[in-house]
Design goal:
Blueprint: H1 8-27, H2 29-33, H3 36-40, E1 45-54, E2 60-71, E3 77-83, H4 89-105, E4 112-117, H5 126-140, E5 149-152, H6 159-173, H7 193-211, E6 220-223, H8 228-239, E7 243-249, E8 252-255, H9 262-275, H10 280-286, E9 289-292, E10 303-305, H11 315-323, E11 328-330, H12 339-347, E12 351-353, H13 355-358, H14 361-375, H15 381-403, E13 404-405, E14 408-409, H16 411-430
Parallel strand pairs: 3-4, 3-5, 6-7, 6-10, 10-11, 11-12
Antiparallel strand pairs: 1-2, 2-4, 7-8, 8-9, 13-14
Helix pairs in contact: 1-4, 1-16, 4-16, 5-6, 7-8, 7-14, 7-15, 8-9, 11-12, 14-15, 15-16
The structure holds NADPH dihydro-nicotinamide-adenine-dinucleotide phosphate.
Length: 433
């Protein structure tokens, strides 16, 4: 805290990991002697830069750009870019720190990083977004590369933004390489990347339930968010026979007691991806119940999939979810559960899948996009989906192997220890760096 003042989200992420890792490290003094945990909490480097661009009215606008290159012990830096007005160093450091463990869990060779800007894409025209992305890449390109650091999307950065960023990188470097993932299929993108995080969450949930001889069929699921992760978590849940009762956005949430229909979901995907409107439009179109300004956690359910943003499930929300019978929480977003809420879920010994395990499917397919780019090949969709399912299964197995406590699996502990072992092993091998 003394070294990183004013970074509450970063402290939160480190504390959550330290709580479960310290007992493990104490039992394995080799890590303590080499100060591995302390070294892991200090990024390799942080780049902060000015991004200057012109809006449609001809005004000069100034934003701040960041890239936090946290750790490349097991592969090139890898992690998304977030464009949101809330972006700060604390948020990007928490995301970059989490990314180290997540990428390790995928079993693919990727280090941890995160970046972005306090640029708010809401209400900006397409041209403004393009000019911003080009200005952002005009500095970022010096710090990244296909074997150095490979950014991807996150909140506010989807296919449109990745395309503008990639185009600018290609122009500046005069080379066509897999320097970004989440690209369009026509220029090096991987099949299933768009769906991978949401689908991966549901595959992970399926594995957790299967250990208890249960399936997703008929499960009542409350999903938050209406962006990339939420859309495809909802789609896969519906394909598996579960009922998606809610989706949410910054404006409020929609509630469909019998579960969203395919027609409603298709409308929402188009609304959020192309028209960038809010969920009140779903209510207008289909008569769906809509609760402005509220979060969906009061809706009785079997499972919750928080897929919007950090700290969206607070202590009171956790109490309500548990009181209403929720038996599993699967984090699609990064750190959507506050520490107090997490304490309630773990005390109740429900199935709780932390984001670094449950939402690793996105970066895993990004890793496979890098592989395909290096080979200059595109694999068929079925092949990539098969690999995604296998990867999620392996992540689940690692969590169980390190998180089993009598009859309950502590997935938080399991994910932290399993992710740590590989990175720490590489750091030990390199000596003191
Ligand atoms: P998107 O920008 O596509 O969607 C985010 C959704 O969450 C939007 O519906 C947005 O509402 C809502 N949201 C964002 N901030 C808030 C807030 N403060 N309050 C209420 N709602 C909010 O992002 P993604 O779906 O890509 O990312 C969602 C989460 O998943 C993030 O935590 C991200 O880090 C994590 N993640 C994403 C991965 C990916 O592959 N995309 C991979 C792994 C994790 P609105 O529509 O009104 O803007």
């Amino acid at each position: 805290i003394r070294r990183n003042p004013g970074q509450p989200e970063f402290h939160q992420a480190v504390c959550e990991v330290a709580e479960t890792l310290i007992p493990y490290i104490n039992a394995h003094p080799v890590y303590e002697r080499a100060c591995i945990l302390e070294r892991l909490t200090e990024p390799d480097r942080i780049v902060i830069f000015r991004v200057c661009w012109e809006d449609d009215a001809g005004n000069v606008r100034v934003n701040r750009g960041y890239r936090v290159q946290f750790n490349n012990a097991i592969g090139p830096y890898k992690g998304g870019l977030r464009f949101d007005k809330s972006v700060s160093l604390s948020i990007l450091k928490f995301l970059g720190f989490e990314q180290i463990f997540k990428n390790s869990l995928t079993t693919l060779p990727m280090g941890g990083a995160k970046g972005g800007s306090d640029f708010n894409p809401k209400g900006k025209s397409d041209r403004e977004v393009m000019r911003f992305c080009q200005a952002f890449m005009s500095e970022l390109y010096r710090h990244i590369g296909k074997d150095v650091d490979v950014p991807a999307g996150d909140i506010g950065v989807g296919t449109r933004e990745i395309s503008y960023l990639f185009g600018q990188y290609k122009r500046l470097r005069n080379e066509f390489t897999g320097v970004l993932t989440g690209k369009g299929l026509a220029f090096g993108g991987s099949p299933v990347r768009t769906e991978a995080t949401g689908y991966g969450c549901v595959y992970f949930a399926r594995e957790m339930l299967a250990r208890q001889h249960e399936g997703l069929e008929g499960k009542r699921c409350v999903v938050s968010g209406a962006g990339n992760v939420a859309q495809y978590a909802a789609q896969k849940l519906m394909q598996e026979g579960a009922k998606v009762l809610t989706l949410s956005d910054r404006s409020g949430y929609i509630f469909e007691p019998e579960g969203l229909t395919e027609e409603e979901l298709a409308f929402i995907i188009d609304l959020k991806t192309n028209r960038r409107g809010d969920l009140s439009e779903v209510a207008k179109e289909f008569g769906t119940d809509y609760f402005p300004g509220e979060k969906p956690w009061g809706v009785p359910c079997d499972m919750a999939f928080p897929c919007a943003t950090q700290n969206e499930i607070e202590e009171e929300d956790a109490r309500r979810l548990l009181a209403n019978g929720c038996r599993a929480v699967v984090e699609g977003a990064n750190m959507p559960t506050t520490r107090e809420a997490l304490r309630h879920f773990r005390a109740a010994r429900i199935l709780f899948a932390p984001g670094k395990a449950a939402n690793a499917g996105g970066v895993a397919i990004s890793g496979l996009e890098m592989t395909q780019n290096s080979m200059r090949l595109t694999w068929p969709r079925e092949e990539v989906d098969r690999q995604l399912q296998q990867i999620m299964k392996r992540i689940h197995e690692q969590c169980v192997a390190h998180g089993q406590e009598d009859s309950w699996v502590d997935y938080v502990k399991g994910a932290n220890i399993a992710g740590f072992i590989k990175v720490a092993g590489a750091m030990l091998a390199y000596g003191i760096l």
